[in-house]
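Hey all, sorry for the wall of text incoming. These are the two entities for the joint prediction.
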Amino acid sequence: MKISEIIKLTEARVVAGDSKNQLVIERAFSSDLMSDVLTLDDHHIILITGLANVQLIRTVEVADVPVVLLCRNKKATPDMIELANENAIVLLETPFSIFRVSGILYQNGLKPLY
Amino acid sequence: MLKLEFNIIGGDFNQAGKASSKIKKKLKQLEIEPATIKRIVVATYEAELNVVAHASSGKLIAIFESDHIQITIIDCGPGIENIDRAMEAGFSTASKKVREMGFGAGMGLPNIKKNTDELKIESEVGKGSTISFKIFY
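and here's what came out:
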């Protein structure tokens, strides 16, 4: 699934990174637990989360996660946006809940990681 | 052989991961395979987080050899009472603050073990811990 399609389906706003990024995302992982994100072996995934802090961006940089979706109107801080831009991470914000976003993206063909 | 050294400040979560990030950039320059870079950087970040979460200060030394990287993290912290227990998945002594940030689930040391080829942990209660690991390219 293209990032542009994820943005459309979740009514998301792009706050960092390139929205025209042509990367194709195949799998998703929903978690607020960064310890868990650090154990993922897959690439090209989207992380769906309710956690909005700088450690989230550091963690996805380390774990090679290219796209992050902040749910339920969690706002990215200026520090998060700067770090995401520095590392070419696409950072999105959606008003929808983690459950709703996960459901929509699953229904539209995004596969789970486990 | 190339050597990089970083100081880690205990409790400063905004700086946590900076050393790992710099090591990642250097490994990319050296054109190491992405899957190997990820193993190295995840293990290094976990170790860096441990210092920030538990110790007052620490030092990270990365030695880039021709076929592997050697990372050593020395901290001035509380030390690990029982290393076997600390290696168990889910065992954690992390504070509430650390858990609120999305860490401290007792997965750090097992994850370091999973991602490294050789791992050595030495610790003295009340003084600190030294973790060193090797990952081949």
